[in-house]
Inverse folding.
């Protein structure tokens, strides 16, 4: 049989059709289609979170000084979610963006997973024993050389058992150089010391205030204990009779929440406070009897205020209308429970003590000091009652040397001067610090003139970081002894952020340590035990837990149950209010550095963490595209000023100050005083993960420290800057 | 046991005068609902935020400028006949307006990613998974088993934390109850909001705070009787279950569009 | 070489020349396939679409090709239902263009969805209230009908026709083609309409929302009508292009003129309806939602020019050319008219898809503009290139143009 | 699409929509079936083709 082309063609077509029809009618396509929907939901790269028994664990958040109670939801041994603890004294269920993102820090890629040692510029994992051995060896050598004072510690706090243990270690070792990073807490402490003659922290009874006069304090931007402040702000909103006035050159979130926004020339807040005092005194609106009975130096103050701070003069300096000054003063004096507060933004940097005293004087004039709805001088919680550390000769000698940061000498009321630490390291040939411990602080990012800070850190021969995360300062270290994260460790947390009674919270481990980390308290106890003689003897505890439980004594049960303990017995110190220091330091203002036309100021936002911890990915995700776009940070500028510089929305520009320059983009914003450039804090990290590093610019690179003439603390609130379109 | 068969209508009231724009609601939502994140999230047009906080200003010059934050979850629209703009358009019934709760759901495994619902939603409340979700190594540990991580190519959106409703109902059933207390079912954002600006509850239940706050007029598609309350794009007839409150007139006005003619005729 | 396959009585270029041409277009196809594979393997992050532009170039392309592909159903309707006998000389080609348009549309849809493997959910889990469901059903059914209409042409291939079964099958299918055509018209009316409905039902989008008649918004009817009106213009355009490329006259002028005239009048009445619709929407529908006309056209790109371009340049002008005898007889004007008409209907589809996405709805929203990525562009061109190949093959091996032999006698 | 899919409801929308769809499909399906059967019969009875 001959198969011609036609037959072949028809055969071919027929066969193809047959196979096609056969397959189509078989169950195969149906099976494949059905499978396709199952495949598409079971890709191996899409995780399926395992289910299990749910439990809740309470603790206290230590990611910022706010001290909120947190409740962690767990499934088996995994932490799933962090929530605010209902009924907690600080936050009652609410929680901030950083606290919520805590699990991204716990399980995140920025963790230091084990002790690390820098080896030829690279981090190498080492064992805990060899790490501690190495440090102890160095400590012993330094002590042998008779320079115990060259060992220092930079820490985010000086309260609580961990800080006290480190302090105790240094004391027994023979160093006076325990240095706390600075914040408005220092400014308030010093102002209170000067005005009340007593050392205490500040507390505010916001929940009962009916008028809050804020000199730039970002009560809705993370000032104080953020969640508590949000709740207070909502309380003020609930009542028609309560009000918040915000004095600030930029329409911040706080200014937007305020009943009135007073756009002042930045840096003149103290003058305005004095102007308000002028109106109050002039119109006899102050509490005369109280002032007569509980104050001294009032007459000098009165004379000064009346002479130098007439509303006309104040208006000229501050840019606030005369009528407005009078209206504010009347409103303030007329309120039944007013309070005046200061410390700009989140209060992460100290301010001018003259300003703090002037503002506090307003509270005194109106009877809001130690009064309901007002401000309280709160003693530090007094529960750590250890016997004094034992000192041998070396220690006794070392402890008497001058502090490297010069605190307590030229400025007797200033306890810590971290800005001077940097100077004293950079100004000498060899670093006066031989060995530095860094805990709960990231000065290589958070301190002004970052470049200078890094220079100083490079000079320090040996740096020990206790950070749980790879931050900028840790990158400068020689060895890392990673602490447990806040969710993994036990620690007492004295709450420093403006409560009216001393409160101690208890941070509880809610999860087994994720990495090969160790509690910093245990590390110091262990190191002490490896040191000889008096140091070993000063640490009678076997481990940190034992130390804490013994220290807390009968408070332990309450703390473990509720998560916090309030020192109800503490009494506000009722000293005489002395106006004299205020008069003496009249006009001791802090002026911005430089001679340019524009003033660069920073601003704080809840969505950008400015503390020692970098913004976690979730928080970064909420940053608006008018603040960060790609890797470009935007600076805010008034459209009028922008026009002067030929800048339009989104333009790229170069921002130059005497300290450095930054590539930025421009966001036109009507809510800012002309002549001001505002830049967000919290960006420009070089460390942490790829979700944060390399994004935007660090404001601290552009500003340098400016010493407050009263306290010696860095109180720079801005710097003169130039902006040019690129 | 009394079984209440009355339909629920879960909804939200957000006090814009209290909202500080802090962003807690956004992160509370992301961590509750296993929302993924990428290296760069600054392109807000492909950044998944079930609840997104808009920043708006009154458009006035310095120093009369004012600003307001508007948190925008899914509005869980009821439409005019029970049809949300997105629900009626979904070709594959992957989204549904649940009659018994008023929650507009999204079934990720049913969605095939045509994005018609996104085109339909005037609030941009719906988000597409342009990428496969990827968590850095180890971070998948915090993923919640209550909400399945989505695969790429599907649409997702706020569910009013419906899994919390289911969990609360499970618990209630075990305890022999058929009704939830007001505080038993709260969304993650409501719970987290540090300013207490968000109130969540059953709009049909006169005892619930959210009902008292907005006083919805169910005869007029839930229009609020409280003059301080408003909804976004009220005039489109989306019949949203999310209400906003503000004392500020300019904020309330910004909730909906007006033609210039109306404005001038109102003035006279 | 392939002379046995070439229809009798017509001349075709040498196979190598033909193959070279196909290779060029084939390269474009490969480019498109590359884009397609990227989208399937890596996902839609390959596109420049975003959460504000869930519908973009692809959906526009879908709507546009379906609109211009409307020439198939309307010519079929005129030929088989109204019995316009002359049109048998162009209906084959109209069907061929239509098949390509619809295959292209489905292909693009297959790339456009985020989970193509679940594409069948639209049928299986159909939501009968969704315009997209209606589109999917009618579109795929109608593609079936178009293929049925195309099969007899394939069966007329010289070699296939020799097989008795295929000859008989082709003959029988011709016999009852009116039934298929009628079904096709029914399906077409609905899917063209529902494509209009896709945008028209969006009551959250005041730019595209229209009042309803029964369950359908006005855009439903406008889309069906415009597809019927503009589709034939595209058929004419394709015919003319084919004539230019082949250098031969393929369809007699009277056929083209008849189709042009019908199309012209259809466009004319359509554009009046469209104008009325626009006016009513601008004066009543949109203001009731808080918008005035200007709100939709105050963007750099999306200005009022787009409205004039669509209604006057792409509507009235081609309509007026085509309804006048002198106009449609003048080759230059005819070319102008069909080009403008195609442009007009494509612009309408662009506006209904992309401007709907771009226009702000929330009072604090801003315009969102978008430009497609190369993957989107290549995959959009892909079906066009495929279409060119299919048309070329069909032209070469099938008697697509019945009048070709008569118009181009071989000595 | 089918009455056994769970989202199916015997309401007007489904009846009209799916009714229309199945109606159109039936016509096309039956039409093609008719053509194929008739063509087969014709072929067997020796009609068609140009080789006779």
């Amino acid at each position: 049989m001959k198969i011609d082309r036609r037959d072949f063609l028809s055969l071919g077509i027929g066969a193809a059709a047959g196979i096609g029809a056969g397959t189509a009618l078989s169950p195969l396509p149906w099976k494949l289609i059905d499978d396709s929907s199952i495949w598409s939901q079971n890709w191996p790269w899409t995780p399926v979170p395992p289910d299990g028994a749910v439990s809740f664990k309470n603790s206290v958040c230590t990611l910022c000084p706010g001290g909120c109670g947190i409740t962690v939801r767990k499934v088996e041994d995994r932490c799933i979610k962090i929530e605010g603890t209902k009924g907690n004294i600080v936050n009652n269920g609410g929680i901030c963006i950083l606290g919520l993102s805590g699990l991204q820090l716990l399980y995140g890629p920025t963790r230091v997973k084990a002790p690390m040692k820098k080896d030829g510029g690279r981090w190498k994992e080492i064992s805990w024993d060899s790490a501690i051995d190495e440090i102890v060896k160095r400590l012993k050598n330094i002590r042998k050389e008779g320079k115990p004072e060259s060992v220092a510690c930079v820490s985010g706090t000086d309260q609580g058992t961990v800080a006290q243990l480190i302090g105790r270690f240094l004391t027994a070792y023979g160093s006076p150089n325990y240095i706390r990073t600075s914040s408005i807490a220092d400014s308030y402490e010093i102002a209170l010391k000067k005005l009340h003659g007593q050392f205490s922290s500040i507390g505010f009874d916001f929940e009962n205030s009916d008028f809050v006069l804020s000199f730039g304090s970002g009560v809705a931007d993370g000032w104080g204990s953020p969640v508590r402040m949000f709740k207070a702000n909502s309380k003020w909103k609930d009542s028609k009779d309560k009000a918040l006035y915000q004095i600030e050159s930029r329409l911040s979130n706080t200014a937007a929440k305020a009943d009135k926004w007073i756009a002042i020339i930045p840096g003149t807040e103290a003058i305005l406070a004095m102007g308000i005092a002028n109106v109050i005194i002039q119109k006899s609106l102050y509490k005369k009897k109280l002032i007569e009975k509980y104050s001294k130096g009032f007459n000098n103050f009165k004379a000064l205020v009346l002479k130098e701070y007439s509303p006309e003069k104040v208006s000229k300096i501050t840019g606030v209308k005369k009528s407005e000054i009078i209206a504010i003063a009347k409103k303030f004096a007329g309120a039944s429970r007013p309070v005046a507060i200061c410390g700009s933004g989140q209060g992460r940097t100290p301010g001018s003590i003259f300003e703090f005293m002037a503002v506090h004087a307003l509270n005194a004039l109106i009877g809001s000091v130690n009064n309901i709805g007002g401000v309280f001088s709160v003693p530090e919680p007094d529960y750590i009652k250890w016997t004094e550390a034992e000192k041998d000769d070396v220690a006794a000698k070392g402890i008497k040397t001058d502090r490297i940061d010069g605190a307590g000498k030229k400025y007797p009321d200033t306890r810590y001067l971290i800005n001077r630490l940097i100077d004293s390291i950079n100004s000498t040939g060899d670093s006066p610090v031989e060995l530095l411990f860094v805990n709960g602080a990231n000065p290589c990012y958070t301190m002004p003139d970052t470049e200078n800070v890094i220079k100083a850190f490079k000079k320090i021969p040996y740096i020990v970081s206790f950070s749980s995360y790879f931050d900028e300062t840790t990158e400068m270290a020689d060895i890392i002894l990673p602490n447990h994260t806040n969710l993994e460790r036990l620690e007492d947390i004295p709450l420093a952020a403006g409560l009216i009674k001393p409160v101690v919270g208890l941070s509880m481990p809610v999860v087994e340590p994720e990495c090969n980390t160790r509690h910093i308290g245990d590390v110091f106890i262990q190191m002490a035990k490896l040191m000889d003689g008096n140091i070993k003897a000063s640490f009678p505890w076997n481990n940190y837990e034992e130390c804490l439980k013994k220290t807390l004594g009968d408070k332990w049960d309450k703390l473990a149950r509720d998560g916090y303990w309030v020192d109800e017995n503490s009494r506000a110190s009722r000293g005489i209010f002395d106006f004299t220091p205020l008069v003496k330091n009249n006009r001791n203002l802090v002026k911005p550095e430089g001679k340019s036309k524009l003033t660069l100021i920073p601003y704080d936002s809840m969505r950008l963490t400015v503390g020692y911890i970098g913004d976690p990915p979730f928080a970064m995700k909420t940053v608006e595209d008018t603040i960060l776009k790609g890797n470009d940070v935007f600076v805010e500028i008034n459209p009028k000023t922008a026009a002067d510089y030929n800048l339009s929305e989104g333009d790229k520009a170069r921002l130059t100050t005497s300290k450095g320059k930054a590539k930025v983009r421009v966001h036109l914003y009507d809510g800012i005083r002309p002549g001001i450039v505002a830049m967000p804090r919290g960006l420009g990290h070089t460390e942490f993960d790829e979700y944060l590093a390399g994004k935007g610019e660090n404001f601290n690179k552009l500003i340098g420290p400016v010493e407050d003439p009263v306290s010696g603390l860095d109180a720079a609130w801005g710097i003169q800057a130039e902006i040019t379109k690129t | 046991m009394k079984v209440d068969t009355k339909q629920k209508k879960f909804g939200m009231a957000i006090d814009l005068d209290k909202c500080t724009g802090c962003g807690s609601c956004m992160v509370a939502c992301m961590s509750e609902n296993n929302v993924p994140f990428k290296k760069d999230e600054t392109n807000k047009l492909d950044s998944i935020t079930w609840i997104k906080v808009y920043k708006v200003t009154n458009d006035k010059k310095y120093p009369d400028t004012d600003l307001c934050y508007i948190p925008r979850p899914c509005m869980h629209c009821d439409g005019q006949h029970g049809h949300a703009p997105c629900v009626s358009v979904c070709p594959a019934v992957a989204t549904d307006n649940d009659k018994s709760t008023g929650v507009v759901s999204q079934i990720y495994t049913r969605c095939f990613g045509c994005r018609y619902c996104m085109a339909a939603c005037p609030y941009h409340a719906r988000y597409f998974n342009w990428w496969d979700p990827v968590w850095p190594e180890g971070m998948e540990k915090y993923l919640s088993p209550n909400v399945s991580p989505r695969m790429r190519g599907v649409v997702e959106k706020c569910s009013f934390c419906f899994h919390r409703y289911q969990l609360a109902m499970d618990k209630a059933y075990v305890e022999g109850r058929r009704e939830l207390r007001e505080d038993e079912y709260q969304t993650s954002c409501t719970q987290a909001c540090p300013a207490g600006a968000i109130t969540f509850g059953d709009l049909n239940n006169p005892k619930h705070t959210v009902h008292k706050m907005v006083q919805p007029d169910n005869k007029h598609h839930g229009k609020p009787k409280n003059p301080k309350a408003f909804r976004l794009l009220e005039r489109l007839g989306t019949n949203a279950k999310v209400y906003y409150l503000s004392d500020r007139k300019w904020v309330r006005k910004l909730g909906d569009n007006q033609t210039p003619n109306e404005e001038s005729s109102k003035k006279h | 070489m392939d002379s046995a396959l070439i229809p009798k009585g017509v001349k075709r270029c040498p196979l190598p020349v033909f193959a070279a041409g196909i290779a060029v277009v084939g390269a474009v196809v490969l480019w498109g396939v590359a884009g397609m594979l990227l989208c399937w393997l890596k996902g839609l992050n390959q596109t420049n679409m975003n959460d504000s532009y869930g519908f973009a170039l692809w959906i526009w392309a879908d709507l546009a090709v379906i609109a211009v592909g409307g020439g198939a159903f309307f010519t079929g309707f005129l030929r088989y239902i109204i019995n316009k006998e002359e049109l048998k000389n162009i209906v084959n080609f109209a069907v061929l263009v239509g098949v390509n348009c619809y295959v292209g549309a489905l292909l693009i849809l297959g790339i456009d969805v985020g989970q193509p493997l679940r594409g069948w959910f639209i049928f299986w889990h159909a939501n009968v209230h969704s315009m997209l469901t209606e589109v999917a059903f009618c579109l795929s059914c109608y593609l079936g009908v178009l293929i049925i209409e195309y099969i007899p042409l394939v069966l007329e291939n010289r070699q296939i026709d020799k097989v008795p079964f295929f000859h008989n099958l082709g003959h029988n299918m011709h016999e009852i083609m009116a039934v298929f055509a009628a079904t096709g018209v029914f399906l077409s009316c609905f899917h063209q309409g529902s494509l209009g409905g896709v945008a028209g039902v969006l009551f959250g989008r005041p730019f595209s929302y229209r009042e309803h008649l029964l369950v359908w918004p006005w855009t439903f009817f406008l889309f069906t009508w415009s597809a019927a009106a503009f589709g034939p213009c595209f058929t004419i355009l394709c015919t003319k292009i084919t004539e230019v490329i082949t250098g031969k006259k393929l369809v007699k002028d009277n056929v083209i003129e008849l189709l042009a005239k019908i199309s012209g009048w259809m466009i004319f009445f359509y554009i009046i309806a469209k104008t009325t619709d626009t006016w009513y929407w601008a004066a009543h529908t949109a203001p009731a939602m808080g918008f005035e006309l200007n709100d939709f056209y105050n963007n750099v790109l999306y200005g009022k020019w787009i409205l004039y371009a669509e209604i006057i340049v792409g509507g009235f002008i081609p309509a007026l050319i085509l309804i006048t005898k002198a106009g449609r007889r003048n080759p230059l004007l005819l070319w102008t008219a069909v080009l403008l008409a195609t442009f007009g209907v494509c612009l309408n589809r662009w506006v209904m898809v992309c401007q709907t996405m771009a226009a702000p709805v929330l009072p604090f929203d801003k315009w969102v503009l978008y430009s497609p990525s190369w993957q989107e562009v290549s995959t959009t061109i892909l079906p066009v290139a495929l279409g060119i190949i299919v048309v070329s093959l069909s032209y070469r091996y099938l008697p697509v143009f019945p009048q070709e032999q008569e118009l181009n006698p071989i000595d | 699409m089918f009455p056994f899919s769970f989202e199916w409801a015997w309401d007007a929308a489904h009846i009209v929509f799916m009714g229309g769809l199945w109606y159109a499909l039936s016509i096309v399906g039956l039409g093609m079936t008719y053509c194929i059967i008739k063509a087969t019969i014709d072929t067997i009875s020796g009609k068609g083709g140009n080789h006779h």
